[in-house]
Amino acid sequence: MATAQTHDAARRILATTFLSLTALAELGLGRHRVQCLVADGELLRLRNGRYVRRDLDADLLAAGRLGGRLDCVSLLSALGVFVRHKPAGLHLQFTPGTTRLPPRPTGVKAHWRHSTRERAALAADLTEAMTQACRCLAVRDAVATLDSAWHLGLVDEPEIAEIFARLPHRYGSLRQLLDRRSESGAETLMRLLLRGLGCRVDVQVELAGVGRVDFVVDGWLIVECDSKAFHEGWPAQKRDRRRDLAAAALGYTTVRPLAEAIYYRYDEVLATMKAIVGRPRPQNSTRLGRAERRSPASGRVSR
Q1: Domain-terminating residue out of 177, 203, 235
Q2: Where are the beta strands (DSSP E) in the chain?
Q3: Which residues pair with 88 in a beta bridge?
Q4: Per-residue confidence of the chain (303 residues) as pLDDT tens digits?
Q5: Helix/strand/coil for 274
Q6: Domain range for residue 102?
Q7: Are 162 and 206 in the same domain?
Q8: Is 75 in contact with 85 (CB distance < 8 Å)?
Q9: 129 and 208 share one domain
Q10: Which pTM value belongs to this model?
């Protein structure tokens, strides 16, 4: 789950607004004082009498200067949500009918729709942004992004339901693919890959003497999705090797595909995992759960 610091940062981004001259006057800042603050760099002028603090996030600042709101995958990435391929240009929400907008740089993706956010908001509504992201992303990537936001606690189950209520009916099949237990985008993508191969996948399994593992596949294969953040350095490698030995003593086989390979060499990982799970189970391996057999023709599990 996300830390309190992550939640606080997300709340700050989502609550960011620009200040109009009227709003500044209500704070006791007249035009002359505003001009002085701008000259001193304490305030930044966006456009058309809109101002923000100088420490504003660069993407929010860019959104405000273009007359839009940070949206879709750009907003989600800023909030710490997993987005596999961060776009080169910003995704921004614009209100239909808005006039006198400045030219948008090449690469900026405009999402034209009405919003529930107040006029001064510089970030789109989170549920709206996630709905839009589902339309922009490939299916696997959309599931990974939704899993991430749910795991971080930025949305709850009713909000997930609202997202799918906003989407066309054809997106409904994605709902059953979500699993908030996934702790990284790599785990989501690997889970989908394994289930696509017809495997039974148990998620976040606690094993005596080993600890918690990412996946137990078909009752005998442990799959751990290793990333640099959590597996770099000799201490981490020693811990992983101790865990693998303990798992082997219980009859499990462990494989550790790298997160970067899952992200950027997906087809290679798919071929490798297909070869691993397609072979007969080692005779000395354990079996977690009820017995099952694999159909060689279909690659699916028969129970």
Answers
A1: 177
A2: 19-20, 43-45, 50-53, 69-70, 91-94, 109-112, 201-207, 211-217, 221-223, 253-255, 293-294, 301-302
A3: none
A4: 557 888 999 999 999 999 999 999 999 999 999 999 999 999 999 988 899 999 999 999 999 999 999 999 999 999 999 999 988 899 999 999 998 999 999 999 999 999 999 999 999 999 999 999 999 999 999 999 999 999 999 999 999 999 999 999 999 999 999 999 999 999 999 999 999 999 999 999 999 999 999 999 999 999 999 775 655 665 777 888 999 999 999 999 999 999 999 999 999 999 999 999 998 877 666 666 543 333 333 333 332
A5: helix
A6: 4-16+56-177
A7: no
A8: no
A9: no
A10: 0.87
- Write out 149-216 in H/E/C secondary structure: HHHCCCCCHHHHHHHHHHCCHHHHHHHHHCCCCCCCHHHHHHHHHHHHCCCCEEEEEEECCCEEEEEE
Residue among 201, 194, 231, 229 at smallest CA distance from 215: 201
Give how many domains the chain has, as a whole number. 2
Q: Token pair for residue 52? A: 């923000």
Strand arrangement of the beta sheet that strand 69-70 belongs to = 69-70, 91-94, 109-112
